[in-house]
Amino acid sequence: MPVTLTSLDDVKFTVDKEVAERSILIKNMIEDVGESDSPIPLPNVSSAVLKKVIEYCEHHRNDPVQVQDETDDPRKRSNDIEEWDMKFMTVDQEMLFEIILAANYLDIKPLLDVGCKTVANIIKGKTPEEIRKVFNIVNDFTPEEEAQIKKENEWAEDR
Amino acid sequence: MTNPFRHLATINCLARNLDRATLLICLRVCRAWYRVLEPLLWHDFWLLRNHIPTDYLIVLQRNRHSITHNDVRQGLFKQALIQRRYPSPASIEKNAQHIRRLFYYGEEHLFQQLAPFCTQLRYLETARYGPEMKPLLLQNLDTLQTFICKTDPVKVPGAEPVFMEWIWKYLVEMKDLRVLELDSIILSDYEGSKFGIVCRKLTRLSLVDSKLIERPKSETEDFMTLKSLVLDQSYIPKLEQLELFQLCPAMESLTWRSRTGALPIANFLAYLSSDKSPAAHLAKLDLSTSKILDEDFVQIIQLLPQLTHLQAAKTLFGSASTQALLQGQAHQMQLINLLDCPDVTKVETQALLQGCPSLKVFYAPVVSAVGMLGNRWVCTDLEELDVSIAEIDQLPAPSFPRHRAVYSQLSMLVHLRVLRLGDSGFAPMPDPRAPVSTSLAPQLKYVLDMRLDSGLGLLSTLTQLRELDLENMHAAMEFGTLQWMAQNWRGLRLLVGCVHPLEQQRKLSNDFLREFIPGLKTFFNRKELQMWNQLQ
Question: Chain B residue closest to A77 (CA)?
Fold first, then answer.
């Protein structure tokens, strides 16, 4: 059964229910409303981003539902990104950030995860100042505070 | 530009994907990130071993080049090489409450400092059993989900099991306990009821080299949630082990091994045929090292229609079992381990590689190079392959490149992450670091030639390769081959074996590879790798 999604800029997208329900937000909305032809409004997601999100959900429509909890062994967690996802995430930084925001809003954990892995790979090896530039963050530490934090947490490099 | 990392959920998701070194850097980005990320730094906390035996120190020294700040697990190895650093008492008091997973192997003085503040543990893994553990368990009864007790393989390999009488009352009280793993532990259940109470809440129970004494002979209620059961050289009488199976109707994964290899197969088959059989769910079976005959394996396979993972290393699995698997579960098998099975020949291996399209992991003693002609393997989604390639000398000649048939087949496995090529089919040199003697040189025609000229270049398709094991392959890689590896296998993280027979050349080659493949670790042989892994 198809479902219609309406973006922030009023563009309508018709997708299979199975694809739309990769978003837990949408899944819950469908369950709450019941059978209906009314479009589902997504006022926080622009059409350009929604198009990308739908593309992701279509590709991953048959993936098993991920069950992740905090007790996942980090030693077993893979930081690798599959080839299709890597190509999918080869976008400009603004789009990458918008996809992450959309994944968070729509509650699509695998997409949020792959978006964050992509960002993690970008900032790996960078200094704090370089990371601030990536995210357009203002440094609100004094140099002394920054040095103190570094010294206080040196032990963590060893364990 | 919108910053997605102002929301807690996205910052947490980002943090889960950061290595330790980058997480430490991110603490200093801004105050908001510091507030959110500092607790995450403490989620996993290791209390390191108090000493490292000399053998392991040698391995550490040899691999010190590959210890980087970017690998939190490597922090374990720094304990032997640099002075240890500790968090301040104020930091411990502030942050120990954030520890969710605690690995306790030593440093009792640090344990004493942080234990009073650890109240939200979800996972505890320990090789220490002193009275200091009791208050920690008491204050985490409501949160602990995983409890692992084992002896330290580094400190006391082959030590006698540890007797723990006092642990039961805590295990019973842990209302969220789901995973219990005991290794070399003796527990007694004098009241005869605690074992059942604990098991009825578990999803996974593992008893390795462990003993339960005074356990009641019969339980009245099934262990409905237990899905994964490991009985590996445990001291429970074998028929009682079968009674235990019957209490687990939802079992999906079973590992069953005995000290002698003997298992009561007739009773096991009767159980699999009974009303209490888990055949509807049992998908993963590990009977490695068991003295199970080929014909018994046939019956087991026929009774488990949901089977997808079969570990049968060092058993008598043979041609009849292979046929049973191909007739029943070929389309669904994802893992098959038949290493060191004397009756598994190249015929069986070839049949499985040509008959099981869903295989992700395949370990077998030997495959024929001639059988690799024509790229007839259907398991193109393979991620791990461990097999020796024999009959190299029987490939049609002349052929250019020389071993094209072999490399062409391997190149189809584009998802391969682990490639272990086993041994070369003849006895290894007494000293793997000795140069190739002229008397051995003629035998090299039986060995896969690991050079570009011979077709290795076809393996540029293996872009996901993480581990390459060449032990006993007698490789003699030239500089061009090493450059090719650095260019095409940039994700390689583990190289086992020697890329050159001459020690000096080997050292230079490994240094080159480590410089141009970031994160690569190299080990002379699997024994060294095993020692390294035991320190993890």
Answer: B17
